[in-house]
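BUG: 3D viewer hangs when loading the predicted structure for this chain

Environment: internal workstation, default settings.
Expected: structure renders.
Actual: progress bar stalls at 90%.

Input used:
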Amino acid sequence: MLHERLREFRCKSVEKAREAGIPAYFLDESDGVLRVLPDGRKERILVSEGLPVVLPVGKIQFRQVNPS
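Structure tokens produced before the viewer hung:
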């Protein structure tokens, strides 16, 4: 139940950020941050020796929304 609610929250947050043209950020289980860019690319941001390291994670497919 909690995982489903967290998933819904993340999906809504990504959609709102995408509509605004900005990335969405989430704390990641690997002690980093997950960044979802407006084009759907996902990146994990970690800190190594005091410097940020950005690792590509993949890409998400956005649902096609038919205009009403």
